[in-house]
Design brief:
Butyryl-CoA Dehydrogenase, subunit A, domain 3; single chain; Butyryl-CoA Dehydrogenase, subunit A, domain 2; seven-stranded mixed beta sheet; Butyryl-Coa Dehydrogenase, subunit A, domain 1; FAD; about 425 residues; two-stranded antiparallel ribbon; alpha+beta
C-alpha cells in the first residue's frame, strides 16, 4: 500500500488546489537594486559542506515548486497535501541529524537549516516534517532498543511509516513533567493505556504514535508506540484553528488501548528521557520560527517593490526601509543563535537552557518580524493572496508549542540564578 493510499481523504484532494484567484491590489512590478538581498543576510547556509548546500538548495527548490503553489489553498481549507508525501523520499531529509539504520548522518545544523527552508515556504508543512523526523524518528533513535530501531527507523526514513508524538493533554501542557494523567498498566506482556492527549500533530493519519503515559506501578513516565488501527485509540481532528491550519492536530482518546511489551520504548524510563527528545526538538521549532520570519520578510520585501503609491514603489520610503532593516536584524540574530546551538548539539554539548533560550528568543522575534510584514502590507496584509497573512498567523502557534515563552524563560532564569522559580 502506498503512502498516499494510507492517508485519509488523499483520494479526495481538490483538483483546483493552488489555483486561488489573486487580486492585483493595484501593484506594479519594479526592478530592485541588483544588490538587494534575501533573508539569509549573513549567508548561514555557507557554513555547511558543499553537498549539504546542494541538498538545501534542492529542498528549497522543491518547496517553492510543489508546496508554495498550494500552501494558501490547503491552509484556508484546513487540509493537508497528502499527495506530496510520496515525493519526500527523493529529498533524503528524514532523520538528517542521525547516523545508522540508513539515516543520512548530516548533523543538527543541516537538519535545522532544512527545517528553516521548509518553514520559509510553509510553516505547516515544516511542522509536519518536524513531528515525523524531529519527534518521531528522534524518539525511537534515542529511546528505542536496537530491535526497535531496526524494526521502525528504516521505514520511517523512507516515509513509509509516518510518526506522531503524543505528550500534551487537554489539562496538562507545561506541567507534563509532573502531571500526566494518561496511565499505563502492565498485564503480562501487554500494557493497557487509558487517558487523553491534545494538540497531537499528524495523529489523524500517523502509522506510529508515540504515547507518553505514567506507569501505575512506579509513577514514572514511559513511552509506548501505538500502531495505526489499534482498538481503543481514537484521534479526533481539532477544528477551528487560526494558526498552522494545514497541520492535522488531534485530540486523542485512549480507552483500554492494548500495547505489546515489544512496543514499549526500552530506553524510556522516566520523563528525563522524554526531555532528551524535547531538547533537540525545541531547537527544531526555533529553526521553524526563523524560517517563518524569513518567509514573511521576503513576501513583504517583494510587495514593497511591486506596490506603488504617490508615483513610486513603497520600497523607496524611509519608514518602509526601516521596517525591512529591523526585520533583517531580528532574522539574522535568530539565525546566528540557532547556528551556534546546532553546533553545540552536534558536539553533544547542548543544554536544556540553551535550547530554551533559542526557542524563546527566536519565536519572540518572529512575532515582531511578521508584525512588521503585516504593517508594510496595510490592508492587503490580511489577505492570503500576499502570503504574509499566513506567516503572521502561523507565528502564533510557533510562539506557544514546544514550551511557551514564559516556561522557557524560567528554564533560562533558573540557569542564570541557580534558583528555580517553578511552582
Amino acid at each position: 500500500m502506498t503512502t498516499q493510499q494510507q492517508r485519509p481523504d488523499a483520494e479526495h484532494q481538490h483538483s483546483d488546489a493552488g489555483h486561488r484567484p489573486h487580486s492585483s491590489g493595484g501593484v506594479r512590478v519594479h526592478q530592485a537594486d541588483p544588490g538587494a538581498v534575501e533573508a539569509d543576510f549573513y549567508h548561514v547556509r555557507d557554513l555547511v559542506a558543499p553537498e549539504d548546500r546542494e541538498r538545501l538548495e534542492a529542498v528549497r527548490d522543491w518547496a517553492r515548486k510543489n508546496v508554495a503553489p498550494v500552501a494558501a489553498d490547503y491552509w484556508e481549507r484546513g487540509e493537508f497535501p497528502y499527495e506530496l508525501i510520496a515525493q519526500l523520499p527523493e529529498l533524503g531529509i528524514a532523520g538528517l541529524q542521525f547516523s545508522g539504520y540508513g539515516a543520512p548522518g548530516r548533523g543538527a545544523l543541516v537538519a535545522g537549516l532544512t527545517s528553516m527552508e521548509l518553514s520559509r515556504v510553509d510553516p505547516s508543512f515544516a511542522t509536519f516534517y518536524g513531528v515525523h523526523s524531529g519527534l518521531g524518528i528522534a524518539t525511537v533513535m534515542q529511546c528505542g532498543s536496537e530491535e526497535q530501531k531496526e524494526r521502525w527507523i528504516p521505514a520511517m526514513l523512507r516515509w513509509e511509516k509516518l510518526a506522531a508524538f503524543a505528550l500534551t493533554e487537554p489539562d496538562v501542557g507545561s506541567g507534563a513533567s509532573r502531571g500526566l494523567t494518561t496511565t499505563a498498566r502492565r498485564e503480562g506482556d501487554t500494557w493497557i493505556l487509558d487517558g487523553r492527549k491534545k494538540w497531537i500533530g499528524n495523529a489523524t493519519f500517523a502509522d506510529l504514535v508515540i504515547v507518553w503515559a505514567k506507569d501505575e506501578a512506579d509513577d514514572q513516565v514511559k513511552g509506548f508506540v501505538v500502531e495505526r488501527g489499534t482498538p481503543g485509540f481514537e484521534p479526533h481532528r481539532i477544528e477551528g484553528k487560526v494558526s498552522l491550519r494545514s497541520v492535522q492536530n488531534a485530540e486523542i482518546e485512549l480507552r483500554g488501548v492494548r500495547v505489546p511489551e515489544e512496543n514499549r520504548l526500552a530506553e524510556a524510563h522516566s520523563f528525563k528521557d522524554t526531555a532528551k527528545v524535547l531538547r533537540s526538538t525545541r531547537l527544531g521549532v526555533s529553526w521553524n520560527a526563523v524560517g517563518c520570519a524569513m518567509g514573511a520578510y521576503e513576501a513583504a520585501r517583494a510587495y514593497t517593490l511591486e506596490r506603488e503609491q504617490f508615483g513610486k514603489p513603497i520600497a523607496a520610503f524611509q519608514l518602509v526601509q526601516d521596517q525591512l532593516a529591523r526585520m533583517l536584524a531580528d532574522i539574522t540574530a535568530c539565525q546566528t543563535m540557532n547556528v551556534r546551538a546546532a553546533q553545540l548539539q552536534d558536539a553533544g554539548q547542548l543544554t536544556d537552557q540553551q535550547a530554551s533560550l533559542a526557542k524563546m528568543y527566536s519565536t519572540s522575534r518572529t512575532r515582531e518580524v511578521v508584525a512588521h510584514a503585516r504593517e508594510i502590507l496595510g490592508g492587503n496584509g490580511i489577505l492570503l493572496d500576499h502570503e504574509v497573512a499566513r506567516f503572521w498567523a502561523d507565528a502564533e502557534a510557533l510562539y506557544s508549542y514546544e514550551g511557551t515563552r514564559d516556561m522557557n524563560a524560567l528554564i533560562v532564569g533558573r540557569a542564570a540564578t541557580g534558583i528555580s522559580a517553578f511552582v
